[in-house]
Amino acid sequence: MTNSPRQSSVPSRSEIAPAYTWNAESVFASAQAWEVELEQLAQETPSFERFRGRLAEGPAVLVETLDVREELRRRAAVVQVYAGMAYAVDTQNQAAAANSSRAETLIGHVQGAVAFVEPELLAIGSATLEAWMRAEPRLAVYRHSIADLFRKQAHVRSAEVEELLGLLAEPFAGASNTHSLLTNADFQFQPAGGEELAVTQGTFMKLMAHPDRETRRTAWENYHNPYLAYKNTLTSTLVTSLKQNVLATRVRRHSSTLAASLFENNIPVEVFHNLIGIFRQNLPTWHRYWRLRRRLLGLDVLHPYDVWAPLTTQAPVVVFQQAVDWICEGLAPLGDDYVAIMRKGCLEERWIDLYPNQGKGAGAFSWGAQGTLPFIMMSYNDNMLSFSTLAHELGHSMHSYLTWQQQPPIYSGYSLFAAEVASNFHQAMVRGHLLATYTDPLFQISVIEEAMSNFYRYFLVMPTLARFELAVHERVERRLALTADDLMGLMADLFAETYGDDMTADREHIGIHWATYGHLFADYYVYQYATGISGANALARRIRTGAPGAAEAYRRFLSAGGSQYPIDALASAGVDLATPEPVEAAFAVLADYVDRLEHLTA
Ligand SMILES: [Zn+2]
Asked: Ligand 1: distance of its center to the CA of 369 in Å?
């Protein structure tokens, strides 16, 4: 690892050159300017009351109400972005934490103040609204959002029931909070291996890539051991969350938890089942990779803790400027202007808060609101993983950039389902470009290694967790009991099928693996990573093989934001996630990586 010496001396925030910090001043010139806007919004929000009870007066009042609502929400989001930026880069800064929570409070006030709009819209009725939209062009922009409101009406309950459901949201978050506090704050892990390397939530994945096998084995076991020791408590937190999902599903009169969850973004349940079905059919591609990996590592038996073991000792150093160049080269098929916007964002406009500093939050994300730059926070470490992470986050940021440029505020957001296509698309395009262009065998192996570990998470673990999630929800829906051993047995069985005979996993440690994912408390969330990587690779293949109009269609998808349902926006870009083709396309890419790796190491 080229970055280990640097970690012992992580610089303080003030030591980071401003060029490598994100451009917070472009959002508000100063903290005082932010304060003024916060106060201004706090004063303006109650005056939204002037529209209450008046929406049925006619299209002129209605369109004014909707425009004012959207502008209030947008400005509050900008206030929240600025406060959140200060906190994300310095989580020990108490003032930043306080400002962030003041911004949250403001968002809550705005949401409360505008809450009467939707019931009034529903009361006007869709026929009248349709006539008004034809008469008033400024209102027509809201057509999709109004149609979506009426689509959801079938599952909206009486005002009293809705109020109760709203009040339940906070106590219902308790199970997830308990899981998070137990595993992130309370768990103590035994150190790994002979070198006594510390195992924490932050170091676990680094240890999994350690060249010494005994270090990996002990890290894997010592990481999972506290989860095993608390298997009953952890089971109780998940089962509580499952029961809450089932309760909400029944109150809202959906046929199943799966249908209820996918209803939100109008995604047909076939998309979920199709993903799982095609995934299971193609598992032999993964099994072929295990056999190759076993040979390359010189092992008789491959264990889950060997999945990330390095295949080469000469991992390339990838500095930021190089990463930007490669990403721009890879995205060239989307057009010179696309690449120019991205390059300028990285090198001049300071979209990115790039390097680690003391107190900076973990992970990487793309963030902002219409009217701000599409910011990125990460901890760049001059390696392939950082480079790939940058490509991914820039995919999100370009999606935001084009959406914010093209859409009115009402459609300035997009679903995770669409988001993970845009981010994975960047990675797919860049990998395809690098493998086709730079032929040095060691470099190619490094590109493929990074790709395989990314696919392992998105395209093996996530679909397996999705199967687990469906199975446990169905059991609770049928009022069957679930013990810790039931959950562990189910998880171990699913991984046994996924891994096949070429991988050996001990049933205890792999059985509790589910508990290491807080994602499971957001029901039916993880499958979207697998559909994302599938859609992304299918679209990248269309564009890289020169399908006519493919790049233009893809840019229209990025510009669509929330103005269409994600499944429709993707279909018009050329990929239908209700069919086997995109999932098969992702497996074809995976098979190609295995072929190349076989060839490179023959
Ligand atoms: Zn992402």
From this structure: 16
Query: Catalytic annotation on 57?
Result: no
pLDDT digits (tens, 9 = 90+) for 397-407: 999 999 999 99
Ligand 1 centroid – CA 91 distance (Å): 22
Q: How far is the CA of 393 from the centre of ligand 1 (A)?
A: 6
Averaged pLDDT of the chain:
95
Token duo for residue 364: 């990487």
Question: Which pairing describes strands 352-353 and 375-377: parallel, antiparallel, or unpaired?
Answer: parallel
Residue 5 has pLDDT above 80, yes or no: no
Q: Are 204 and 223 in contact (CB under 8 A)?
A: yes
- Which entry of 37, 393, 420, 469 is annotated as an active-site residue? 393
Phi–psi pair at 365, nearest 5 degrees: -155, 160
Sign of CA dihedral 389, 359, 205, 277: negative
Class of the CATH-defined domain 25-172: mainly alpha
Sequence ranges of the domains in the chain = 25-172
- Kindly give, in sequence order, each residue whose CB lies less than 8 Å from that of residue 87, ignoring residues fewer than 6 positions away: 93, 96, 97, 99, 100, 361
Contact assessment for residue 240 and residue 173, using Cβ atoms and an 8 Å cutoff = no
Beta-carbon contacts of residue 186 (< 8 Å; ≥ 6 apart): none
**Short-list 393, 349, 417, 348, CA closest to 562:** 417
Tell me the pLDDT tens digit for each residue of 163-190: 888 888 888 889 999 999 999 889 999 9
**Any idea what the Cα angle at residue 347 is, between residues 341 and 353, rounded to 5°?**
105
Q: What is the pTM of this model?
A: 0.94
Gap from CA of 389 to ligand 1 centroid (Å): 9
The pLDDT tens digits for 550-574 are 999 999 999 999 999 999 999 999 9
